[in-house]
Amino acid sequence: MKHIVLFSLCLLLTAPAYTGFAQTLPNDYLQEMQRTDPLAAAALSLAIQQGNFEAAQKTYQDFLKKQERGQDVMPSALPAKKPSTPSLLERTLSADVPPTLSTSLQQFGYDTFNQTVSTFSPSRNVPVGPGYIIGPGDQFTLTTWGTTEGIYSVRVTKEGNITLPKVGVVPVAGLRFGKLERTLRRHLSKYYSNFNLSVAMGELKTITVYVIGEVSRPGSYSVNSLTTAYGALFAAGGPTKKGTMRSIQVLRSGRTIKTIDLYDFLLRGDRSLDMKLRHEDTVFVPLIGPVAAVAGTVFRPAIYEMKGQETLGGLIQAAGGILPIAIASRLQLFRFSENRKKVILDIDLSKTSSPAKKAPELRQKARNMDLISILPIYDRVWEMVSVRGHVRHPGSFEWKEGLKLKDIIQKAQLLPTSDLRRGEVIRLTKDYMDREIIPVSLEALMNGDDKQNIVLRPQDQIRVYTRLRDVETIAVSGEVLRPSTYEINKGERLSDLLGRVGGFTDEAYVYGTVFKRKNIEESQQKNLQKFIMKLQAQVLQAGAEGTATAISAEEAALARSELALNQNLLNTMKTMLTQFEGRVAINITEDIDSWKDSKDDLLLQEGDSLHIPKRPQEILVIGEVYSPGAQVFLPEMKVKDYIVRAGGYGKYAEKDQVFVVQANGFAFGVDSPAIGDMDNVKLGAGDAIFIPQRVERYAGMRFTKDVMDILFKTAVVIATIAVLF
User: Fold this and answer.
1) Common-topology check for domains 139-201 and 384-466
2) If you compute the radius of gyration of the chain from its CA atoms, what whole number of angstroms results?
């Protein structure tokens, strides 16, 4: 690994930026990285080879930080673990059998190289075997004891020699490690007697190998002398998908000394074809050979490269064999015929008594670009009945001839809350085009009534209902003593609920209580949606009539302007549609007994919500005034006083359409009964005053004025919720 990085670094140091980076590195940084964090060293090597200076610098800085914290492994060098997807076996045993074949087949084996982090270079701690050949660059340690003692570290020079004390120069290049100690002992015995000698290998020499052809990163690599052909392939990123996996050549001195088939390694873990490389060896990856695919219900569907005379059965075995969920008696073969068309061939194995892998039909030779499809069996069980509903053991049960309803009910076991008055058997009609429902009295059945004990058929579904009422809830929030979600008792009213929550806090503003009902919200939105659709049709009709009856260009332009304005107003109403929240206006007080059983004491329903706000301190003035906004609430002030404080009516204020929306959800206007003079009405905290804008009415714009009125009144209703609370 050290020499790979040095070689790549030397190629890149011609650029000034990389020269600066190299000057920051200590001389022994690679040895330290390789010793303490080989993954960081691999990441640094890859970054330099790809010319990514910033990534290389960051990797080295991260390595230094890890050293400071005393950590050995750099997490950034590890690949992010992808979330696993369910396998075919997991899906099948989870009752999710894929109905169709996989359409995303991948070439077998190539992802092994893509997902490997390290370069598969042999560790320097691996013992050197006796067959290792000594060469220039090897370093070893001599230890002597007896009449002479000493420890000597020597390195083989480029000329293949080492230098020993008194002995001088000794040629060792070409010697096998197993004969090195005997050779050195012979030379030392000329000057010493009665001594012992031990030889230990240290740093190994570096060799240069070439990995070329269809590989991810072709080039020359400086690796240690224990590197094998497999290690060189991993260092180069492995074959590309255009390269072969089965006929990789190792060249030495211009001739092929070994051909490697990686399928032996990938399918069976057999590394017997691997070999140690020597200096100047070449690993060559030619183009891929013929391929065929196996899809469907096999253990390892993929695209496989063929070598020699592959058979269909051999390909299926390479794919791991046929799964138990496959139709083993029938295969399909898709084949390209004579470069003219694609054909499909059905292979029937039902007539053979041999196992599928030995069937004569599968002994035929596979062709280039063949696709073998192995279909799954029909996963639905026909001979079964099911029980659904309120029983102790719902699910599917085996159907047998003569099976009766009581047998299944006893297996499923009725619960104490099961409704014995009526059960149902849902059955397919005789023509299998529809279903029929057969009512059954479970009470009579369990008491021995044979008329109710009907004979079941395959695919019958038995339904058992319950007498237990579904739980209904209401959410209570705000200024109450025990805010929470409460279950609703049958016939329970709002006053009962407030007794359960413990009453109100000191800061509660009961006058502003917000009570919402889900079905009211749905009704509001549904009715307004219908109204908008009707109004939209009227707008279009009025626009068409205005344009058709215009007698001048000015009137036509005015009609088009009115149509555009009305359409914009309708779009605004559609936006308001989403603001309805189903509020029900009620008028209650802290004295619950004073309004108990009145019209405001609502009967609670599922989905209701109740919110008690804190006491507000302001009044809202919204609309056509000079300074709209919130004002401090004063009990003695009236409507006109708040309008005056807001700067008075604006230039376009519609004074005869002033509305007041009260905090309790009710609203009143100038024309409301028993209001009298609107200006002198006193308000409560949290109330809001709305002053609409006057729309000048021109000839032909009456419909627009009506839409504006409707729009404003709709906004008033929505503002009760959207603005105040």
Assistant:
1) no
2) 44
In 225-376 the beta strands, taken as DSSP E runs, fall at: 248-252, 255-260, 282-285, 291-296, 302-305, 326-337, 341-348, 370-376
Summarize pLDDT for 369-400 with one digit per residue, the tens.
888 888 887 667 889 999 999 999 999 999 99
Q: Report the top-level CATH class of 139-201.
A: alpha beta
Nearest to 182 by CA among 168, 197, 171: 197
* Torsion angles phi and psi, residue 616, rounded to 5: -75, 165
- Strands 473-478, 609-612: pairing is parallel
> Of 329-333, 516-520, 699-703, which range is least confident?
699-703
- CA distance to 204, 289, 610, per residue, from 501 (Å): 82, 79, 11
Beta strands (DSSP E) in 247-324 are: 248-252, 255-260, 282-285, 291-296, 302-305
Q: 518: number of CA atoms within 13 Å, CB side?
A: 10
Q: Where are the domains of the chain?
A: 2-77, 139-201, 206-285, 291-376, 384-466, 616-694
Task: Phi first, then psi: give them for residue 503, nearest 5 degrees.
Answer: 90, -165
And the tokens for 290?
A: 């013929």
- Give, in order, the Cα–Cα distances in Å from 183 to each of 175, 487, 538: 9, 94, 111
What pLDDT is stored for residue 390 in this prediction? 92
* CA-based max dimension of the chain: 133
Task: Please state, rounded to an integer, the average pLDDT across all residues of the chain.
Answer: 79
CATH of domain 616-694: 3.10.560.10
| Per-position b or e across 400-430, b if 16+ CB within 10 A of its CB | eeebebbebbeebebeeebbbeebbbebeee
pLDDT given for residue 392 in this prediction: 94
Cα 129 to chain center, whole Å? 50
Q: Give dist(CA 384, CA 233) in Å, integer.
A: 56
Most confident segment among 435-444, 656-665, 670-679: 435-444
Cα(411)–Cα(397) distance, rounded to whole angstroms? Answer: 9
Residues in the chain: 725
DSSP state of 358: G
Q: Which of 522, 519, 525, 539 is nearest to 574 (CA)?
A: 525
Whether the CB-CB separation of 427 and 446 falls below 8 Å is answered with no
Per-residue confidence (pLDDT) for residue 72, from 0 to 100: 43
CATH of range 206-285; options 3.40.50.740, 3.10.560.10, 3.30.830.10, 3.40.920.10 = 3.10.560.10
Percent of the chain scoring above 90 in pLDDT? 25
Q: Which CATH class is domain 384-466?
A: alpha beta
Q: What is the CATH number of domain 291-376?
A: 3.10.560.10
Report CA-CA distances (Å) from 569 to 23, 473, 580: 71, 39, 17
